[in-house]
Amino acid sequence: MTALWTSAAAVAATGGQTPCDWQAHGVSIDTRTLQPGDLFVALKDVRDGHDFVAQALTKGAAAALVSRVPEGVAPDAPLLIVPDVLKGLEALGRAARARTAARVIGVTGSVGKTSTKEMLRAMLAGQGRVHAAEASYNNHWGVPLTLARMPADTDIAVIEIGMNHPGEIAPLARMADLDVAIITTVAPAHLFSFESIEGIAREKASILEGLRAGGTAILPLGLGVSGILTDTAARLGLRAVTFADSGADWTIASGQWGEEASAVQAATPKGARLFRVQSPGRHFAVNALAVLAAADALGLDPALSAQGLGRWVPPAGRGQRERIITDPVDDIGFDLIDDAFNANPASVAASLEVLSLLRPQDNVGRIQPGRRIAILGDMLELGETELALHAAIADHPALTSVAVVHCVGPRMKALHAALPMKKRGEWAETAAELLPRAGALVDAGDVVLVKGSKGIKVSLIVDALRKLGQASPQQDKGAE
Q1: Feature table: binding site for ATP
Q2: Which residues are annotated as a binding site?
Q3: Cα angle value 61/62/66 (rounded, 5°)
Q4: Which one of 32, 261, 430, 476 is least enclosed by Cβ atoms within 10 Å?
């Protein structure tokens, strides 16, 4: 097996020092998931990674990237010593990008970064050696970590780039040295750090500063701030390709919107394209337009791209749908949509639209008509208007088809108060308070959406609902 990093290459990249020769086949920042042969990076976060270096070496780490010799570790241990560990990781990331001929796609946006990244991964499979970010590794350490993990023989890489504060995206985009940049959308998110949605748009548009000469910007049209995005591309002299439900370079000409999948005919600059997305929801189909536009920008085979895209399904916590069987004899249960990882007004609206498409089953539970139920947790980091943004969910058209809305968190109390009485379910300060009542919140035949920001921990409710029966992934139905 070819080493990902030799000691000589790592020293050359970082300017660090090491007392011995070693070879690493991976890069890890967590001893819990570290594999033998990994280079352990002793980052400082809630805990100082130097405290875990001895454990990492014991577990088989090939070496450790450190800024000092940790206590309990011999000076002649395989250590790569640099002045600053994070800067050392960044140097590894830049060196990994420089040594590969890979074409790199960067993805940012207020909603849909991770699902779009995973669509790209599925689409690209079979069209070369693909490297993509794991989980949501999209911040100041996640991007260099993803790059540092990139093998030299990678053909195409997908880098997810996020932000919490102004000025974060551009340096990460430049580090990734992009061939294609996708902005999924701009929506109210992280407003606690920005004065307006226009400020968010300018920060998202800064990903374009990381595009190579001749690169392609793939931009959403039809937003109130789309002009900021297209103006930025024009100012930088970039080729811009737009996508939207309608009126853009890549649009939806027609579609069949089923419970299990969406079949779409797209209008593109090169003619009609047919594709399938193994999930309900028009927003997934719109993001798929950006994914296919990226494939077109890279000159990839359109048929293979459409086939690959058709294999994508939402990951856990990102809209994954599964059936919870509560009575295996009669095959009775309820459908669960796990969207408990992230939430802002745009993503909640999209999830409610998906919920409205799914049909409950009547006459199988305690309550005769099957119901659409939403369990919604706080949307975090929305700034001074957060309560108004929560209350505004009550006016979303998709709620007309939702029977009951349960609310979790102090901010969601505003929505709870705004709901009509017949839809107003329970409210709890924390997700933990609802856990003992999980069985009473749902019934056989129901379709249940659980949605909220990660910090409000509505994932605990997802786990409790799963324990009411036996999970069976819904998206396996009809998969090709």
Answers
A1: 109-115
A2: 109-115
A3: 80
A4: 32
